[in-house]
Each structure stands twice: as structure tokens, then as C-alpha cells.
Design goal:
Structural class of chain B: alpha+beta
CATH superfamily of chain A: MetI-like
Mean pLDDT of chain B: 89
Number of strands of chain A: 0
Shape of chain B: globular
Oligomer: heterodimer
CATH superfamily of the largest domain in chain B: P-loop containing nucleotide triphosphate hydrolases
Shape of chain A: globular
Number of domains of chain A: 1
Number of helices of chain B: 8
Number of domains of chain B: 2
Number of strands of chain B: 18
Largest sheet of chain B: 6 strands, mixed
Largest interface: A-B, 17 and 25 residues
Low-confidence stretches of chain B: none
Helix content of chain A: over 70%
Largest sheet of chain A: none
Strand order of the largest sheet of chain B: 6-7-8-3-9-10
Radius of gyration of chain B: 24 Å
Radius of gyration of chain A: 22 Å
CATH topology of the largest domain in chain B: Rossmann fold
CATH class of chain A: Mainly Alpha
CATH topology of chain A: MetI-like fold
Number of helices of chain A: 11
CATH class of the largest domain in chain B: Alpha Beta
CATH architecture of the largest domain in chain B: 3-Layer(aba) Sandwich
Order of helices and strands of chain B: EEEHEEEHHHEHEHEEHHEEEEEEEE
Strand content of chain A: under 5%
Order of helices and strands of chain A: HHHHHHHHHHH
Low-confidence stretches of chain A: 258-268
CATH architecture of chain A: Orthogonal Bundle
Mean pLDDT of chain A: 86
Distance between the termini of chain A: 40 Å
Chain lengths: 268, 343
Amino acid sequence: MEDTGTRIFLRIWAVLIMLFLFIPIFLIFLYAFNTSNIESWPIPGLTLKWFSATWNDDNVRSALLVSLEAGLLATAIALVLGSCAAFAIHRTRFFGREVVSLLFILPLALPGIITGIALNAFFSFNNITLSLATIVVGHTTFCIVVVYNNVLARLRRMQGSLIEAAMDLGANSVQVFRDVTLPLISTAVVAGAMLAFALSFDEVIVTTFTAGAQSTLPIWIFGQIRHGVLLPEVNVVVSFVILVTIIPVAVAARLTGGGAARVPAARS
Amino acid sequence: MTNAAKVPALKLEAVRKHFGHVAVVDGIDLLVERGEFFTLVGPSGSGKTTLLRLIAGFERPDSGRIELAGRDVTSIPPYQRETNTVFQDYALFPHMSVADNIGYGLRIKGVARQTRDKRVQNALDMVRLSGLGGRRPNQLSGGQRQRVALARAVVNEPEVLLLDEPLGALDLKLRQEMQIELKQIQKEVGITFVYVTHDQEEALTMSDRVAVMSSGRIQQIGTPVEVYEQPATEFVADFIGISNILLRDGVRFVVRPEKIRMLAEGEPADVGMTVEPGRVAQVVYAGMTTRYIVHLDRGEQLVAVRQNMDAQDNAQKFEGQPVRLAWTSDHTYVLGKGEVDSR
């Protein structure tokens, strides 16, 4: 047991780190309610006017729509491909299985800029016009990984004899999947999907290289900050993106049993 | 129809199974009668669990034939076989209640809800878990889970019930209770049990017949009394009970420890008894009995067991003392004509 002095010191240290991490985010929330459009401290007063201004901004609206579409589509594709990949890797034994498993995870570990440039080169080489579809492809590359990881981890934790037990009691493979496998992996699938959506929703780098004329919310934010205009609206949008990202991550963490949700490497 | 009673519940013919180059099950022939409590006993790696998995259908034999109640099931998948298994790790579905676990087999077979509920209730009563049907498996103790696993299998009234070391995870006391209870349940329901264990005592306690297995082959099949009193091979003599094997006048034979008398100093042996002198090397107190490990003057080691009824407070004092061991030839069992003479 550490002595009291060490304990107090560690607590203070932990608090300081939390403050360091979260004060900037908290400030952005606060600035979203700032009456002045100049970001200075202390803020002169609180207002909700930027929220309605943002909501009525057509550019923000279309960016939100693109973000939602890209996120939902990429998540849907990742769900199918990621789950199938997890089942295949879990069920079968073949030479090079570990390598294949690593290749599945690689897109998330790879710097976004590499994925982005590679995809961009590929699309222009094949004369594919950058569009919503190419954004979806870009996002799917790393969304697959979180679904794959979550489902595979659950499958590995599942008692192998459960499937045999179901077969032993008369269930054919369809019934085994419906009654045993699916209910046991469902929370992992949902958690994977939520994380995938959260990742997609705040992605910048891959999107930069795969988007044509469209912009997603993060791309819009990036553009506004570069031009230094509409900063109060940026704060509103950033707050919104943070919430949309944090909530699914928190829910996913609960679904996977309180432990850290399976995002192997931080991104964006 | 009179024939039906004679069809064995389970029949194996020359069943073989290799994993890689290893013959895990190496040509097994077996007949198990209806309603029999049949045990496969052997050390780990003897192929007993693989044999059980072959019967259940989780593995396909490389060659040979498996019949259940006269029907060839060799290439039939597990979900179409009239067998049910009690798994070593119980394999209860964690997302279902105890009652749903037990009723799963009936549900799959399309048994009507009312009948199903009633049979699940009966099964719960049978394993003395009435009232716990609504619980989840993780809310039960190890012993209770074991009972649920048993009820889940028995409720389907299979042709043959397969049990894979079902008591292995329980502590000694609970295990001994369950041994008796399992045997009772088996008598009650009249289902054929094929039971796998590495515990020779468990095998002797519960079974109608025992098959002793080693390296994928059956060494001996017989009643518990037969395999204990008349072991067919040295392996069986060694595995079932304590090995007391001697070579005298070119004959190898077994003397079971409880049949050896330790003579007190000066005490004469009965007429016709063989007497051999030795020295007590170790005294092991085991509650009900005390074991004496004796080095015979002729070189071998024998174990003699004495009931602790005649209060051996200080049995330890025998350690290092000379002693004479005596037994009658009725109590020895000849293994062979000394073909394995190492000296």
C-alpha cells in the first residue's frame, strides 16, 4: 500500500491530466453560447442565436447530410464485411491466417494520409469521379476494422462447446446461428457499428482525399477555420460532432462489458 | 417386436479416428445394452473423449460403423442423432433462463408449449432444482449448473445419453454426492448412459460395465468387479486400483492391497498363506484407512491397506520396522507367465 502522500499526489496528478485534456473541449462548448463573435475571455454573455444561425445555414445542412449518409452507408457495409471476415477468421484454420487477420486491421493502424492518397490515386487512375460513393469507400476501409475486431473478440470469448451443445440438442446450422450465435454476438455487432459510425462521423484526412465537391461536417469545419470566418457556428458544429461521436463510443463501451471499446489505434 | 429388446442401444464396429498420424481411436468394437450404465475409463489421451464425440457426431470416424438402436448413424450429423450430451464445461446457453435451456431441445423438435413446460418442470424436479427455472445459468452454483446440464440432456429422452467427465469440475464432496444421484436418476429414467471419466473410483462406483481404455484401444470390458478382481492386462491392474504386481516362479500376478495381511511380530500365518518378509518404508494415513508401503526383501514394493477401525493411533511407529506380509492364493490374480521379466 502506498502512503497517504503518494495517494494524494497521484489524485492531483490525475485531475490535472483530465483538466489538460478536457478544458479545450469544454471551452468550445462554452464559446458556442458566446454572445460575441470574437473569442475572448471572459465571454460577455450567453446566447442561443448561433444555434439557429447554424441550423439555417445551407452549407452546414448539406454537410450534415453528407456526413450522415457517408457514416450510415460505410457502417452498413462494414457491418456485413467485418462480421463475415470475423466469422471466417474465427471458424477456419489456414496457412497465413494471422497475416490475413493483420491485413484486416491494417487500415486503422495506417496513417489516414496514406489510405487517403492511395485511394485518391486509385480513383483517378481508374477515372472514377470523386463523390459520396468514394467517401463511403474511404470510410469503409477503417470502419470494417472496428466491426471485425469487436465481433472477433466476442467470438473468441464465446465457449466453443455452446455451438456443439445446440447441435447436440437438435439444432441445424441455421437454428444454431439464430438461437445461440447471433444473440451472443449481437451486442458486439451493435457496439462495432456504433464505433464505426463515430469514426466515420469525425473523419477528416481520408475524406479530404476521397471527397469531390461535397463536404462532410469535419471538412466544413476545417474550411471555416482556415478562412477564419463563421467561428461561432464552427463552435456549434464542433460541439455537435463531439456529442455525436462520444455518445456511441460510450454506449459501445457499455455493450462490450464496461471494458475499453475496441478501437486499436486512435485516429483522425 | 420381441427383437426390439435385443437390439443394443449402441454398437460400434472397428471404429477408427486419426488426428494427423496419431490413431486416437484405434479400432474399437463395442456393444452397449439398453438401459445400461456404461463407463469409458482411462488416462488422459486414451481416446475416451474422442470416442464419445464420435458417438455424438461431433467427429466423423475415418473408418468403421456406429449404430444407435439398430440404425446406422455413422455419417449422420449430431442434430439428427438420438443422443444428447452432458458437456464437461456444461455449455449452458448464458442468454437463456434455466427453463429455456432445458426446454431448448424440445422447442427445436416442435413439442407444443404446454407439453414442453410440463416436461421441463418434471426435469427440474428430477434434478431437485424446482423453482429455479427463471434464473440465468450465471446465477447458479457449479453443482446446480451441472444438474441443469443433466436435465437439459435427459429431458429429450435420448436413445443414449453421453456424459463427458460431467463431475470433473466439482469438489470431492459434491462429486461423491452427485455420483450417487446420477446413478439413481439413471435407474429412474432408464436411459442408456455412456459415461467418460479418468477417475477409476467413479467408474467402479457408478457403472454396470466398464471399458478400460489406453492409447485408443479397449484393454478390457467387464463389470466393476471383473476389472478390479480379474484385470486382463497389467495396464488394467495398474490403472484400476493400486498396482501390486509380483513375479514369482515365472508367474506374474496381482495382489490387491486390502487383501494383504500384515502379521504382528510372532503371529503365525494361516495354513496355505504365502508369507514374505519386508520392511515398512512409509505409512500413509488416509482417514478411513492407513496405507503401508512395504519394500519386500526380494526387491519389489507392495502396498497394504488396513481399516482404521482398530485404532492405530501411532501407526507411524511402524515406519522402518521389519514386517511380514501374508496372502492366500485365492486372493491373487494371475496376469501371465512372466513374459516381462526384466531381471
